[in-house]
Design goal:
Layout: H1 18-31, E1 50-51, H2 69-72, E2 79-80, E3 94-96, H3 101-108, E4 122-125, E5 133-136, E6 139-140, E7 145-148, E8 151-152, E9 173-179, E10 195-200, E11 205-206, E12 212-222, E13 227-237, E14 241-252, E15 268-281, E16 284-298, E17 306-323, E18 326-342, E19 354-370, E20 375-392, E21 406-426, E22 431-445, H4 454-466, E23 471-487, E24 490-501, H5 505-509, H6 515-519, E25 529-531, E26 539-551, E27 558-577, H7 581-586, E28 599-623, E29 627-642, E30 655-664, E31 667-676, E32 694-704, E33 708-715, E34 735-738, E35 741-744, E36 756-764
Parallel strand pairs: 7-10, 25-28
Antiparallel strand pairs: 1-3, 2-11, 3-9, 4-5, 5-6, 7-8, 9-10, 12-13, 12-36, 13-14, 14-15, 15-16, 16-17, 17-18, 18-19, 19-20, 20-21, 21-22, 22-23, 23-24, 24-26, 26-27, 27-28, 28-29, 29-30, 30-31, 31-32, 32-33, 33-36, 34-35
The chain binds copper (II) ion.
Copper (II) ion is lined by residues 157, 159, 161, 307, 339, 341.
Length: 765
């Protein structure tokens, strides 16, 4: 089997057949039963960001001074690594969360997007309890591309209530890898920030003859919100066949802030399931996966509506094959969403059904060719199709919301075909380069629309229907990365990338300037109304990023990385105040108001985002008596600004995470300090709210016996009252008297959760 991704100091070897390689793997797993896959071994220690690649650079890595944690872990069933070949993806400019990070996250929260806060520059926009929107280095929501088992999931809700990461529970995540800002073109197109790849239910094969089974079931409770749920994962496998289930269910009430007040409309219930069947033979790996989601309700404190129904169904297939000439990866998927919004009593009481139906499908095929001992060539092609219908049925007895259905997006289409070529060269022991070019063509269109009636939306609908709405965008992207490792302790990475994203269907085609209709559009959680713009151009980011990293030669004791970056985004899709007669009729001060909710229209503006991330870890003690103690830290700063001086919306203020992790045998402990600066720089055009600084302390401890593991944690130990910097506006807890009876009061940010005592019991067998 060709060694497709050589280590930085190893030349590409032409090497052995896949058969002997598999046999070696099996033998290794037999000799060392702890060499199991993540899915078969219960997570056993606390999260820390590992650097990818984390291979020791020395030929013979020194063993740790004491018996390692792994040696104390209960011997799992003998299963071995999933893929029969090496990961062919480029390793540059990426970070991978530890395999147990998702499981660990599940003790504190059920929101998978919150995991990105463990990545450099990571944060998340507050939304529903399981549907927050990830952001990295100031690029959030659609500007990041998230693939769940190779599936790309487009928004199927005008509030983006069903983002990709809401389709997995944290404990289902076996692997989360992020390509940061300057990711190679081979990982994807049609995004301008970072790309996140999530794997659930990966295959795990038996290392010995015969069938083996392994199961882990957990149940948990969190005092704040009275949340409880279960997670389960189970694998049945022999040498060449693997069947894995992964899933979970959780229910939570409204959470309380530190001051004891209930934050209304923060309740939720969700369940996600995935079942994989994998087969391998002689360097080929086939995986077929089906699954689905059901959310009966999810409250939104920063939207006017709540989610009252969300069902996802999906199927995907994946093939990886290793041949004499290289490697092929192919995947195909279909993912369907049925979504309904309404109001969850008693926090919101009204009637206005809003329905969405979305379907995504596509394929990706990639070949990795070792064209010489030093060169790898990757070529690939992908197709992503999206269909969307978004309609609001008439409300019986309502003059304004009837007698017809409001067609928000009628037969929306967004189809993309992408092609790339990428060249990775290992010049010598010190220098590696990855250079690629990519083209994506995005075609969008939508059918005729109509409002509830001619009075409220007739003119807008007529103008929209008369316009030519078909759009074709041609993206020309590229990336160039250079890695230099002069010695055993330093590593430098310099990258430049141009990335392009076309508008989503709502940004281009939401059409009504009626005030109520506009308030239904937008995933910004700011209480403002939004309308699309047929003239939007794709946004083009030009990002340069430099990482300087230092570590001890064995990469066991300490590790520091500093990454300054800068992006110039041409035609950044931001907003302008809406100046149409209809917008001004409902709010005469809409163009100038610097307080209150406003009506906005998507518009292109050039912008820059500049920032720096610092990551570090240090082993402070490591011996038989006191176990292993490690400090880890993460600092992030970003500043985003339009070239006309307007600041960008939802930029995470300066923030840091500092933690001390300890493990001794089956015992793990962690103290985490989270520091967030005040958010003073806010978007003037959004009338964005400022938030004060805060500090939180989180504790956790866990003990693992042979088959049982108990985790206990306290989040927000000192019960601090604080405001979420990216939480948007609280539209539910503060009301003013208005024409409608009562309306959301402007000026209140969303309070974060107060103290929560969390417990989880896991059984593995
Ligand atoms: Cu929705």
């Amino acid at each position: 089997m060709p060694n497709l991704r050589p280590g930085p100091r190893r030349p590409i070897s032409s090497a052995s057949s896949s058969l002997t390689s598999s046999a070696l793997l099996a033998a290794a797993a037999l000799l060392c039963p702890t060499a199991s896959s993540a899915i078969a071994r219960p997570a056993a220690w606390l999260p820390s960001v590992t650097v990818d690649p984390a291979r020791p650079r020395t030929a013979k890595p020194r063993p740790r001074p004491t018996a390692s944690h792994e040696a104390h872990a209960p011997a799992p069933h003998a299963t071995e690594a999933a893929t029969p070949q090496k990961d062919p993806a480029p390793a540059v400019a990426s970070r991978t969360l530890p395999a147990q990070a998702g499981f660990d996250r599940g003790l504190s929260a059920s929101d998978s997007a919150g995991l990105v806060a463990d990545l450099p520059g990571g944060a998340s926009w507050g939304a529903g309890g399981v549907s927050s929107l990830p952001a990295i280095n100031g690029f959030g929501a659609d500007r990041l591309q998230v693939a769940i088992n190779s599936m790309l999931i487009s928004p199927a809700c005008p509030n983006e209530m069903n983002p990709p990461l809401s389709f997995v529970n944290p404990a289902m995540i076996a692997k989360m890898r992020a390509y940061l800002g300057i990711g190679p073109v081979s990982v994807g197109g049609d995004y301008i920030g970072s790309r996140i790849d999530v794997t659930t239910a990966p295959p795990a094969f038996a290392a010995t003859d015969g069938w083996i089974a392994s199961t882990r079931v957990s149940s948990f409770y969190r005092s704040n919100g009275n949340a409880y749920g279960v997670d389960a994962t189970a694998t049945v496998a022999n040498r060449d066949t693997s069947v894995t289930y992964s899933g979970g269910w959780v229910r939570s009430g409204n959470y309380k802030a530190g001051d004891g007040s209930t934050v209304k409309s923060t309740l939720y219930e969700t369940q996600n399931h995935a079942l994989s069947i994998s087969k391998r033979s002689f360097g080929n790996l086939f995986t077929f996966q089906v699954g689905g989601q059901f959310i009966p309700y999810q409250g939104y404190v920063n939207q006017y509506m709540d989610m009252v129904y969300n069902r996802g169904l999906f199927a995907n297939g994946r093939y990886e094959g290793t041949f004499d000439w290289g490697m092929i990866e192919a995947s195909a998927f279909v993912h369907q969403i049925r979504h309904t919004m309404g109001f969850i009593a008693p926090d919101k009481v009204a009637s206005m059904p809003m329905d969405t139906k979305g379907i995504d499908g596509g394929y990706a095929i990639k070949a990795t060719l070792p064209v010489s001992g030093r060169d790898l060539l990757r070529v690939g092609n992908e197709l992503a199709l999206n269909r969307l219908d978004d309609w609001w049925s008439p409300v019986a007895g309502s003059m304004m919301m009837g007698p017809n259905s409001f067609l928000n997006i009628n037969g929306g289409q967004r189809d993309r075909v992408g092609t790339f070529v990428e060249w990775e060269r290992h010049w010598d022991r010190q220098w590696t380069s990855v250079v690629g070019l990519r083209n994506d063509i995005v075609r969008m269109n939508t059918g005729n629309v109509a409002g509830y009636n001619a009075m409220t939306s007739g003119a807008d609908a007529a103008a929209f229907n008369a316009a030519d709405r078909a759009r074709t965008d041609v993206h020309l992207d590229g990336s160039a990365l250079l890695r230099y490792e002069p010695d055993a302790i330093s590593q430098y990475e310099l990258g430049f990338a141009r990335k392009t994203r076309s508008p989503n269907l709502y940004e281009r085609y939401a059409w009504s300037t009626n005030a109520m209709a506009m308030q239904m559009i937008g995933w910004f959680g700011d209480g403002n109304g939004y309308v699309g713009n047929l003239d939007l151009k794709p946004e083009k980011a030009h990002t340069v990023s430099f990482t300087a990293g230092w570590h001890d030669p064995a990469q066991k004791i300490w590790d520091v990385k500093v990454t300054p970056y800068a992006s110039y985004v041409q035609d950044y899709i931001d907003v302008d105040r809406c100046g149409t007669a209809s917008c001004l009729a409902s709010n005469p001060a809409n163009l100038t108001a610097n307080t209150g909710f406003v009506s906005l229209q998507f518009a292109n503006h050039d912008a820059t985002l500049v920032g720096v991330n610092v990551e570090g870890r240090l082993t402070v003690w490591d011996d038989l008596t006191y176990g292993h103690g490690q400090i880890r830290g993460l600092i992030g700063y970003v500043r985003g600004r339009r070239t006309d001086g307007v600041d960008l919306y939802h930029m995470m203020p300066v923030n840091a995470k500092l933690a001390l992790d300890h493990h001794l045998g089956g015992w793990t402990n962690s103290v985490e300090l989270q520091l967030v600066g005040s958010k003073d720089v806010v978007s003037q055009v959004h009338n964005e709210l400022t938030t004060p600084s805060y500090a939180l302390v989180n504790l956790r401890t866990g003990y693992e016996w042979q088959h049982v593991r108990l985790d206990l944690g306290v989040d927000n130990l000192f019960n601090r009252t604080y405001y979420l910097p990216l939480g948007g506006a609280d539209l539910v807890d503060n009301k003013v008297v208005s024409m409608m009876g009562s309306s959301a009061a402007y000026g209140y940010a969303v309070k974060g959760p107060g103290r929560s005592l969390n417990a989880r019991l896991s059984v593995s067998f």
